[in-house]
Structure formats: structure tokens, C-alpha cells
Amino acid sequence: MTLPYNIIPIISIITPITYYYFNWCYFSLVRVLRGLGKQNLGWITVTAALNYLLFVMCSLAELNLIWNWTAFFLFLFAETFFYCRGGGKEAAFFSFIGILCGLTVNIFCRCVIAILISQPLANFDNHVSNAENLKAIPVSLGFLLGGVVFRILLRPLPGRRIRTLLGHSEHLSFVLKVMTGMFLYLFLNLLIYQTKENGLPLKLWGIKSCVFVTAGTYLGIRFAQQMCDLSDFRNRNHLIRQELLLKSQEEEKLRVEAYEDTLTGCYTRLYAEKELSRLLKEGIPFSICFADLDGLKQVNDRYGHEAGDQYIAAVAAVLSDICGNQDILTRYGGDEFLAIFPMQSTAVISNWLQEADWKLRESGKSERISFPMSLSFGVAGSSESEEMKELLRIADKRMYDRKNNKCSMEQCRK
Q1: Rounded to two decimals, what is the model's pTM?
Q2: Mean pLDDT of 363-373
């Protein structure tokens, strides 16, 4: 198969156009995946002109293809580094994509065309002064196909994978090592253009090398992207654990605020009613005791609310001493305490409360306390009612009966 004699001049005119397309697609890829904003056509035009000028100068100098592509890579890296506003790894990654894509499709096109027209690969090297040199054909086609590949990389799936990779510097380093290996491997394949032989095996070897580099680069990027996904998964799990821990701490704080009295450290009324409902529902026998401070208002009026808080804390301490691990002591109101005693009789609880009252009275006689202290209490057993409100009413009434009896006795003494 032979080519028309006038096709080379036509291809030479098309080549700068296809390179401009290659350059435009490359920087579009960089711009979109790096999120650099609006496309700068002036930058595209200037870099395309400079790179194509480099391409022409290397061709006129008839440099070995290895030096040709090395210079092109260095130019592309410098331009990309400036375009990305820094970021050496990112610039190197995009530059490798550009050089691997451009070099792979060029080698592929040279080998395929060499097979189709039965020409030795040496006719596709950089010796453009040779009248038989056909370099312009695969180069133009290669630039065109390279631009198409860049457009494909901008599609949602490959674009997402590359963005993920760019966000993980540690995995990007691995991909750069893979790309470096693929780049050096392609460089070795450029040596086959120095042979004058027109053998099919060398051309097929070149095609095989392009397939190998494409597959190797894809697998390297795919593996690194999966590692990025795993890292993101671990990070999300860590954040979820942190959020769950924070939520648990907030819930514990709310629970403490809802169930624990800040002054005495006792449980609150809400917790007491919750536990009473549970005990009644489960049919566990228990006794309850309402305890009320005697003369708290007088202490507040005469000695101040700080003394009143001291009085409340002292009662809480005395009642805590008679409560076991299974018992529940709550501050039911301002000066009222409710104690719940599972599996205890009312007689035993009454004796305990009388002892607590005696201890409280003795504490009120100490030098550190400047006012008398005592409490009134009322006890009720779960056998007296199956309704929580009724049990509370019974214990409360007995407590007030005891308090009224105390007042009557004190008045009689006076």
C-alpha cells in the first residue's frame, strides 16, 4: 500500500491544528479536575504555540525521539506547574497523563500505519530531512486521538476517580512511581525506530507496549483510587465514631441534668417517677419515704440561702447513709426528698428514718452549724396501692401528719 505523493504537505498543515486541539483538551482536563475556574484561551494559545515550536525545532534538529519527548515532558511540567499555581505532585501527575497519552497514541499510530503501508519504523523517526520520512501522519493522528482521550477522562466516572486521587497525596506518590516506570518503558520502545528492518514483530511489539502501558497506568490509578476510597471510608468511620461519642456525651450530660440534682448529687423527681413506674410494672415489692426539712424557710430568712443550701446538703448526706446500692434517693422538690427502698418493709424504713432524724439533730448542735436541723417523714409500702400517685399521696400525707404533730408538741412545750 502506498500513499499519495501530496499527502505529506497536507498533513503538515493539519498537524498544528491537531496539536492545538491536544493542548486545549489537556489544559481543559487540568482546569476542570483542579477546579481552576474559567478557561483562559490566551494561555491555551500561547502554550500551544510554544510547545509546537519546540516540536518543530526538535524535528529540524533531528534529535533522537527520546530527547524530543524528554524536552516536551519538561516543558509540559513547567507549564502545568505554573497553571496549577504550584503543587508539584499534581503538576507531575497531569504532566505524566499528558506525556503518556501523547507518546502512547503516537507510538501506536506509527506502528499501525507502518503495518498498513508496509514501511519500516525508521521512516517514522525524527529525521524529517529524509524524503521517505512519514512522521507527520502518525503525529497528527496521535495528537487528535490524545485530545479525544483527554475528553474521555473528563467524563463523570474517570473524572471522579482522578479527583479522589488528587485529594490523597500519599497515594498520588504511588501513582507517580507507576507512571515513571511506564514512561521509561515507552522510552525504551523508541529505540526500535532506529532499525531499518521492516519486520512485523517489531511493529507488533510497539503496539503491545502501548497496550501494556495503557493497562499498567490504568491499573495503577485504579488501585490507588481504591486505596483512597478505603482511606476515605476509614476517615468517615472515624468521624462517625467521633460524632457518636459526642452524641453519647451530650446524651449523658442531658441525662445527668434530667436525672441528677446539682446541689445534692441525688436523683431528680423525673428519675424517681420513672423508677416507681418500673417497680410497679415488674411487681417488685418496695417501700417509699417522703422526707421534708423542718424550718427551712426560717433558716433561709434568718441565715440566708447559703445556709439553706447547707441544710439541704446535710439532709441529703444523712439520707444517703441509710440508702444501699439498690435504694434510690431523690430530691423530689425544693425541701422534699423521696427515697425508694426495693424489697424493704415500712417498719424497717421507719426505724432507719428515725435514726437519720436523730443524726441530723445532733449535727445541728455542732459548732459548724449555727441552726437546728431535723426532718419529718412519711412511709408507705407498695402493697397499699398499685397506683404510683396514690402511694405518693399516702407517704406525703403521713409526712405532713408527722410534721403537724411536731409543731403541736413544740407549741405545747412553749
Answers
A1: 0.61
A2: 77
